[in-house]
């Protein structure tokens, strides 16, 4: 890492972004390809290309709904003293197991079911992980530390991904002339190296993390937990307008971010672009995102967080409109570059902004609610992609339609920034 005055706790926390981003990178690139290789065809049990795109989007939506229910529950329970690490460890372990197991699936139904399982626990680990930010750093350093997490996550994810990509190529993914072993072995290697990397890079956080902020209240049964969640939602809706408007803004603008990340390969394949070119540009996007996140980390020392998020929203709005012109691999590359400039920054700054305006002792619960708004938006975006494709529309129109979410998100974030903070320490 670059020379900084990061503490051991901050470095360990950042490393989890390096670990989990490997799974994110695989989900954005090879997983949709492997799924379509298994699913598309004329043999019994296989489906068309448009159906595969739609079903993949539906699977992401299923994950969204499940995590939206489980996230706040686990968040409330993890806010109790010494609970965050066990919840986090369990989510990581199950996510890694699901990731590795996915490589052994031999038909598209089993493949998508196992992927949903792995992705649920991957997302659950992020709910707890994000809530740890208040424990590992100070409010003044949150923007910088959060940005470093995304920055190094982008670069770190390239290491296992390159191994997975080589395995894909040597399993005949590009040409049978390059086949050294079967596609099944290629998947096993790709998922295996990703899962092992994910777990190994998480070890420092499991070792060094200490829960500093926690609540003394106890909620022993599910009814009481839901009562606590509904009480907090009521408080946000009636008393804490800053959090309310931010969550509405986040719900809207993160829709496009998550949907583009989840469907980047689907965009290219639907346009008939070569797989190798798409993957090369995606790798380049990781480098661009690394640089972009570091730039915004520096800017966070001079500008307020809301202003930087607004800049990212405008950038994404332009990217969505540019999608209408997509035809060639070069166009895809330009789109990927635009996404890379703002992708990590809009997510890291949103995370740190939210961390600054919530009660530190209830960060798990609040980030569970945050995740509902995040995944709820992704649900709508994936549903839009599925609806447009099943209705016979183009992927260009589907992506461009996401621009309206960024425009509305811009408006609500401006409203949020004008509200006084109700946070107390």
Account of the protein in words:
There is one protein chain. The chain is mainly α and 425 residues long. It has a single domain, classed as MFS general substrate transporter like domains (Growth Hormone, Chain: A, Up-down Bundle). It is built from 16 helices and no strands. Helix 3 packs antiparallel against helix 4, helix 3 runs parallel beside helix 5 and helix 3 packs antiparallel against helix 10.
Question: Would you spell out the secondary-structure blueprint of this structure?
Answer:
Elements (H helix, E strand, L loop, with lengths): L7 H21 L1 H10 L9 H30 L5 H19 L5 H24 L1 H4 L5 H29 L12 H26 L13 H17 L2 H30 L4 H25 L5 H18 L6 H29 L5 H28 L4 H6 L2 H15 L8
Helix pairs in contact: 1-7, 1-8, 2-3, 2-5, 3-4, 3-5, 3-9, 3-10, 3-14, 4-5, 4-8, 5-14, 7-8, 7-11, 7-13, 10-13, 10-14, 10-16, 11-13, 12-13, 12-16
Number of strands: 0
Distance between the termini: 31 Å
- Indicate the multimeric state: single chain
Regions with little confidence, pLDDT below 50 for 5+ residues: none
> What proportion of the residues is helical, as a percent range?
over 70%
Radius of gyration (CA) equals 21 Å
Helix/strand order, N-terminal first: HHHHHHHHHHHHHHHH
Specify the CATH class.
Mainly Alpha
CATH fold-level label: Growth Hormone, Chain: A
Derived from helix and strand composition plus strand pairing, the structural class reads mainly alpha
Architecture in CATH?
Answer: Up-down Bundle
- The rough form would be described as globular
Number of domains: 1
- Main sheet? none
Q: Roughly what fraction of the amino acids lie in strands?
A: under 5%
CATH superfamily: MFS general substrate transporter like domains
Mean pLDDT across the residues is 85
Tally of individual helices: 16
């Amino acid at each position: 890492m670059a020379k900084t005055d990061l503490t051991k706790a901050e470095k360990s926390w950042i490393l989890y972004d390096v670990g989990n981003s490997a799974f994110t990178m695989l989900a954005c690139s090879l997983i949709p390809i492997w799924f379509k290789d298994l699913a598309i065809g004329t043999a019994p049990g296989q489906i068309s290309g448009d159906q595969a795109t739609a079903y993949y989007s539906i699977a992401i939506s299923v994950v969204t709904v499940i995590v939206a229910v489980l996230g706040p529950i686990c968040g409330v329970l993890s806010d109790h003293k010494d609970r965050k690490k066990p919840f986090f460890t369990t989510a990581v372990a199950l996510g890694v197991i699901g990731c590795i197991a996915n490589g052994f699936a031999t038909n598209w139904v089993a493949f998508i079911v196992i992927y949903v399982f792995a992705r649920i626990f991957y997302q659950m680990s992020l709910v707890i992980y994000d809530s740890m930010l208040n424990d590992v750093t100070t409010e003044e350093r949150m923007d910088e530390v959060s940005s470093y997490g995304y920055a190094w996550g982008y670069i770190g994810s390239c290491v296992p991904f390159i191994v997975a990509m080589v395995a894909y190529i040597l399993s005949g993914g590009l040409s049978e002339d390059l086949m050294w072993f079967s596609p099944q072995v290629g998947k096993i290697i790709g998922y295996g190296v990703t899962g092992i990397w994910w777990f190994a890079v998480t070890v420092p956080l499991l070792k060094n993390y200490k829960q500093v902020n926690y609540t003394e209240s106890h909620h022993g049964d599910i009814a009481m937990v839901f009562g606590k969640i509904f009480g907090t939602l009521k408080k946000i809706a009636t008393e804490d307008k800053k959090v309310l408007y931010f969550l509405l803004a986040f719900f809207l603008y993160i829709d496009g971010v998550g949907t583009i990340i989840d469907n980047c390969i689907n965009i290219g394949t639907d346009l008939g672009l070569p797989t190798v070119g798409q993957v090369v540009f995606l790798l380049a996007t990781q480098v661009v995102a690394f640089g972009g996140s570091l730039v915004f980390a520096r800017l966070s020392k001079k500008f307020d967080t809301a202003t930087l998020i607004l800049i990212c929203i405008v950038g994404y709005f332009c990217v969505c409109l540019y999608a209408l012109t997509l035809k060639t691999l070069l166009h895809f590359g330009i789109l990927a570059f635009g996404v890379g400039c703002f992708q990590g920054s809009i997510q890291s700054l949103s995370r740190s902004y939210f961390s600054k305006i919530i009660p530190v002792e209830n960060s798990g619960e609040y980030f569970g609610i945050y995740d509902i708004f995040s995944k709820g938006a992704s649900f709508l975006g994936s549903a839009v992609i599925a609806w447009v494709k099943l209705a016979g529309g183009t992927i260009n129109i589907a992506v461009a339609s996401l621009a309206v979410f960024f425009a509305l998100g811009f408006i609500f974030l401006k409203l949020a920034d004008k509200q006084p903070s109700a946070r107390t320490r």
